[in-house]
Amino acid sequence: SLVVLFGATAGAYGAKLGSDERELILLVWQVVDLPSKKVGTLHKSLVKADNLDLSDQCREVSGLTPEGLGKAEPLDRVLQQFSQLVSSDLKVLGKSSYTLCSDGQLLIRQVLHPETSKKNFLLSDCFYSFYDLRKEFHTCYPGSAPVKDQTIKTMAEYLGLGTDETEEDFGVWQVKTMVAIIFSMLSESCNHIFTEPETVKYKYETGPCSKSETVDSETVIRARGLPWQSSDQDIARFFKGLNIAKGGVALCLNAQGRRNGEALVRFVSSEQRDLALERHKHHMGSRYIEVYKATGEEFLKIAGGTSNEVAQFLSKENQVIIRMRGLPFTATQEDVLGFLGPECPVTGGKEGLLFVKYPDGRPTGDAFVLFSCEEYAQNALKKHKEILGKRYIELFRSTAAEVQQVVLNRYMSTPLIPTLPTPIIPVIPPPYTIATGSVRDCVRLRGLPYTAGIDDILEFMGDATADIKPHGVHMVLNQQGRPSGDAFIQMKSADKAFVVAQKCHKKMMKDRYVEVFQCSGEEMNFVLMGGTLNRSGLSPPPCKLPCLSPPAYAAFQTAAVIPAEAALYQPQALLPTTRTPQASAAAPPTVTYYPAQAAQLYMNYTAYYPSPPVSPTTVGYIAAPPGAVAAAAATATHTPILPQPGALVRMQGLPYNTGMKEILSFFQGYQYAPDDYNGLIQLSDQARSVLQAPKEWVCL
After folding, report:
1. Could you say which of 176, 209, 470, 680 has the lowest number of CB atoms within 10 Å?
2. Which CATH number does the domain housing residue 295 bear?
């Protein structure tokens, strides 16, 4: 048996039904027994919406009024009556089971499922399987119009049925006509059989995604504006009624491992994707969500993974994933299991835990945990900010895609100089410093295209490139780590800087003209330290380290192997030369290796590693070749070199009145080996900053 169903909302009608999030206000249905071609009673029920403000189109088409709807029952009551009346009609016809049949997919997928999900009540099982009359009609009559162009009226006209809608009430004519169309399809000339109903997934299925998998770009969307705490299940609920592919929700993370409010969602078909696009600016709580088309490549960049460890962890399907953050670095699997306790058992015990580590094997303080059901996961989330050891632990819902992003990116973490060119040519240049004096031997470039790189700047400078100091190009980034459009260039003399400023001022780079000004090293230093230059003078910088831009790199790429002869870059602003009692003594030369490519001779590289998930930024350095260290030791009394990556920690967000005592108190419980790595960043009397660079941190 079929139950022919028709509905209308308080807003858009026809092809846009459900696209405006308006509530259901009308349901009309009738039972049809296919073998005997008998029908039950036709029922029409008004639905009381929370918002009775009807659109003009709704008033015109349906003839309904807010006054009439105000006397109706709410949706949950109407659906209860629906089930009872359908069961009663089936008994009269001697039947017990039925399947819904609607005009298209919008009423079921775009209206009933989203609305009941928002109102927090469950639909009965009958609403998870239905026949799309338009598809069935096109299968029965291949010569008819395409499915997307079909309407009840066009199908009736194709069969030569009466199409005068004014003879019946709104909704009644539609159901009667749909029944007549079904009987025509059941005639001896057609003998159509209803065999393959449309299905709606009961719940979202999690699972891993391989980078080698093929993802159709016509099935992927990008959702933007999500609450930061939203999980894959929340996103699946937003798209309730549409079938998301297994493991098809990928939450996007920023460079710090935090969720950035975006997600890529993969659906089972392009038809489902097109319906998802109609939910553009629908609401998740109080926030509206933007929905755009995306590509399969974008989805694989976020959700794809190749690690065997991750694949094994995610091989247990339909698990609830919880992310733990802030674990002590010494925490073991037993510690985590003991913290969670018997009330929330982990799936597979130790096999259900996955610790996130840096490429060198050090723990990041993050871990992912699998639970077999929602109840256990909820019990675990109740332990949010409880203490393990001496630290409070944060717990959040997570997704399979987030596991792959976080864990694999830790495995693939490389400096922002992904590969060093070969051959590597050893040279002994003049000692590299960031100028601090008042001599105007620098130039400032303002208004650079945001896509401009080092090669573009060198081409822009033309013949003056030969007059740039080694490591003399400094590109300025904004607080988001993106190009600000400014750059500073250290020239070999003030005369050279003056000539460049005169020659290149307002010269075109790509489609923009660039302003070039002569300035001093002191002014340049202020900007690199976070200050600003304006017409009234210098604006002091905030207390933060300089943001010297590294070259661009791909976020998802194979880990680069750095050769033993890799260059040692020591930015003066981060690791200043140690002051000695002989202030007048000349600074000893530093042995530095330069890449062979001419362009990289000018760039002041600072090797940053991607920071761990939602943890402070970690600064890593490329280890110095033994030969360089030996040569430096032979020619200098002392040259500061960090012994290993990760020996320097950077603190952000300090109160402005913080002193050395407060910092040492903050690190109470850790022992460091003090030596002459402490030093002042040489600025001017107007602005000085102390950088504490301990040689090694050792946990007691």
Report:
1. 680
2. 3.30.70.330
